[in-house]
Amino acid sequence: MKKVWTLLKTDCCNILGLNTLRYSKDSKAKRRSITLMIAYAAVLIMLVAYPLLLANGLRAMNVHDLIPEYFLCITSLIIFFFSFFQAGGYLFQTKNFDMIVSLPLKPGVILFSRFLRLYLGYFGMTVLVMVPSSILYGRWTAKGGSYYAMLFISCILIPLIPMALASLFGSLIHAWTVRLKHRTLFSTVANLLLMVVILGMSWGPSFFANRISLDQVMNFSDTMSQQILRYYPPAALFNSALVNGNAVSYLLFAVLSILLFLLFFAVASWKYMYICQNMQVHEASGNYKFKGLKTNSIGKALYLKELKYYFSCPIYIMNTIVGYLFIIVATVVVLIMGDPSRAMELPFSILDYVPFVMVFLCCMSSTTASSISLEGAHWWLPLSLPVSTRDIMKSKLLVNMTLAVPTIVLCNIALQIRFGFVWYEFLLNMIIPVVCCFYISVLGLVMNCRYPLFEWKSEVVPVKQGGATMLTMLIGSLSLAPFVGVVALCSALLPGLVLFMEVMMTGILGVAGAALFYYLSGMDLKRL
Amino acid sequence: MLSISHLTKTYKGNKAAVDDLSLTIENGDIYGFIGHNGAGKTTTIKCIMGILDYERGEITLDGHSIKKEPIYCKSQIAYIPDNPDIYEHLTGIQYLNFICDIYQVSKEQRDRDIKKFADAFEMTSHLGDLISSYSHGMKQKLALISAFAHEPKLLILDEPFVGLDPKASLLLKETMRELCTKGCSIFFSTHVLEVAEKLCNKIAIIKDGALITAGSTAELTHGKSLEEVFMEVVQ
């Protein structure tokens, strides 16, 4: 255990730039660390505030008995997706494999320290999401001491099942693809397929096929909870334990969590060396015959290089394609099932908000927010080559637009064929998300220039844990919120002005994006 | 060709990594840059390449300032760092073509020169493989081919012989001499003093960021070995 602790301490010592703050003599680096900490604190406050608001909402709807299972499901789902994207890249990172393996450590110790590092983060998240809302629930229903004891012990257990399941899937995919010739391709496709299956299950036809009535919409949390319970049975045990004080259910929940974790750990430890060793083996045919070469412009060469990097890195793809996948899956569901607002008997049409749904989903997925950090040890190359900052930034921006624009255009064409919008609505449905996506992409670059992270061992660090990624999502959402707010307000109070406001707000974001890009183009990259 | 005048680079914490360093590299020079670990060699090289900013002094290439005209200057220079971390997601040939695209090398020239240098370094058969499958020495060879392929006026190499096998090392030395007869200049750092002594027509010795001595190899050594001179001046 001492060795696990030593590894964990070494691994965690620069979380949130703590080591930089303690030992760096660079005041700029220290300021960056402090800003990052403030940003993370804002996210932590949001993590507490949203569940509290939701809990109050559920109480107002008189369904507060759902609070424990509802928050358990939300927490587990978030942990599952985060772990799924992180586990493979982080648990089996090979950057310092030779050094770590040469130390007198068992593979299980290395794996356990890495798992523990992920676990601690999710434990913190569980506490923030579960505890405040569950304490409120305990006070509303005058629960006794055993409820609070079970709640606090649960926080230790809750991350285990989603982490173990996600890591197990991730490890199995790694173990299967690691010896294949095109392992990047197979690994990415397998991961994406699994994600689509999970999305399909949770958004699946049952949601629309049941023809939910307005009454059911009023009890939406109940409906949603039942839906999730079907796919996450442990929530039923948890609910029974906390709401009804059922000790047997609680014991079953605890045993199930620990058993699943042990199962994962046994499989992962068994395959750990195999996966890591094979990840270091690269196919080399050594039979190249020299052929004539094609020439490209500087801009195209940089863009192609960026695109090749994107498609060579499963972690980068998996973490940045989610939003676009959501757009495609949602479009397919709507194409098959029809306008969901009719099925739900809503007083407005969800189709009116197509561009904003797309904007929100694009916001989740900017490739640019980590594109500079991902240069890592290669950063000397763009700095020493005769290329302008503008060309470098343009190539990174274009990668995100290459993913966004075809997704937005094709999905809108499909929706247009199915629903026949008025021509200007069709145009706006495409232009608004494209412009917003441009703005978010540039914002991602600005954030990454402000908070670059070149020293990492796994791509997971800049892609998933980088401050720039988090700040882009945070600032992106905050700066797009007024847009959605103004349009929603207009459609309620001044419907005649909606079109004008949409055009104007899109214009403002377009200009803001262009201004930010101009600022970026003049940036001195060696000062990052 | 390259003029470094009163270059001063201070890292955060007020440690002067390079202190008032002045050097001139003429056309056709093979200039060796030697010093102990942490003396400021790599920092000087990175300042020349525009990778690091500096507080005082001026670096010019044929009269063009690296600060004011970085793209022009970089287009005339090829640089290879001590540890060539090159894009591992590309194949060798994709990397070479990428570099040629950036330097806008004509199709004829890249077809001719890449083949010539790849054959010479025995890398041709490996060019279709991903760089991630290369050994350190192979990456070094690829970086050298990419540097030679765009015919730079100035070649800046940081520890170029580290990781190269004896045959590649010999070939590099021959190619360096050949390039210099065509008017190219080479500025390189090294710890291998025997190589510097035999290869360079000029040598500069740096200690704690300051230039201790610089000049032609013959004048500097005065019949002694470079190793003896180095040990005398850095003591």
Structure in words:
The complex is a heterodimer of chains A (528) and B (235). With 528 residues, chain A is mainly α. Chain A folds into 2 domains: 1-188 and 214-282, no CATH class; 298-528, no CATH class. Chain A contains 25 helices and no strands. Chain A has helices at 2-12, 18-23, 27-60, 67-91, 97-102, 107-140, 145-157, 160-177, 183-203, 205-209, 214-218, 220-231, 234-244, 247-279, 298-312, 314-320, 322-337, 340-343, 354-363, 380-384, 389-419, 423-450, 460-465, 467-493, 498-521. In chain A, helix 6 runs antiparallel to helix 14, helix 8 (160-177) runs parallel beside helix 14 (247-279) and helix 17 runs parallel beside helix 21. In chain A, 37% of the residues are buried. Chain B is of the alpha/beta class and 235 residues long. In chain B, 49% of the residues are buried. Helix content of chain B is 39%, strand content 26%. In chain B, a hairpin with a 3-residue loop joins strand 1 (2-11) and strand 2 (15-25). In chain B, the strands form 2 sheets. A 6-stranded mixed sheet of chain B has the order 6-7-8-3-9-10, sandwiched between helices. Chain B has 9 helices and 10 strands. The two termini of chain B are 32 Å apart. The mean pLDDT of chain B is 92. Chain B has helices spanning 41-48, 70-76, 92-102, 107-120, 136-149, 166-181, 193-199, 217-221, 226-234; strands spanning 2-11, 15-25, 30-34, 56-61, 64-65, 77-80, 154-158, 185-189, 202-207, 210-216. Chain B is globular and about 50 Å long. Chains A and B meet through helix 3, helix 15 and helix 20 of A and helix 2, helix 3 and helix 4 of B.
